[in-house]
Amino acid sequence: MLICGLGNVGEKYQQTKHNFGFMLIDRLIQNYNFQYKSSNLGAELFQGEIANRKTLICKPTNFMNNSGPCVAKIKNFFKIEISDILVCHDDFDIELGKIKIKTGGGDGGHNGLKSIDQSIGKNYQRLRLGIKSENDNLKAMDYVLKKFSNIQMTEAEIVIDKISSNISLLFEDREKFLNDFFRIAG
Predict the structure, then answer these.
(1) Sign of CA dihedral 124, 6, 160, 128
(2) At what angle do helices 111-120 and 68-77 cross, to 10 degrees?
């Protein structure tokens, strides 16, 4: 299994909405005691286990728009099936505090997904992390590069905690994972 979080490298982009995927990955690494493996193949790579499954976690070390080549290198090097890849990313079309999971589909204008689609195809799993806020009227490009407000960061942390606590369910029973996520949210 490969879990890839999308984000942009560098201090300038920390805590921006576009780095929601990186934020989740950082929590998974911490909560499941993943060990650093390498920074080869264009990503920081960590290894560990979730739900008794050997799992690799990666954070691409280039900008999000060019995430695909590193995901392809890791997929090919470790011989990972496309169906065993989960990409965690921000989604401008989903309200903050909500998530969606799907396999395949379009990129929805997300350049990180577009790059991955071009490099490995579209039939990987996607954990879509909502970032939309009714109070912001910025264009998508400006909005995603803006830092979370304090209130938004609190909401983002709740999402990260819930996903991290229940991630094993995602691999065992996707429907139960979603039901538990939204039950806890209520």
Answers:
(1) negative
(2) 40
- Inform me whether the pLDDT recorded for 184 exceeds 60: no
This prediction has a pTM of 0.93
CB-based burial of residue 145 (10 Å sphere; 0-12 exposed, 13-18 middle, 19+ buried)? middle
Catalytic residue among 5, 6, 16, 18: 18
Q: Are 3 and 58 spatial neighbours (Cβ–Cβ below 8 Å)? A: yes
110 is a catalytic site residue: no
Confidence at 186, pLDDT banded by 50, 70, 90: very low
The residue assigned the tokens 């929601």 is 20
Q: What is the mean pLDDT of residues 170-184?
A: 80
Domains in the chain (CATH in brackets) are 2-185 (3.40.50.1470)
Report the chain's mean pLDDT, rounded to a whole number. 91
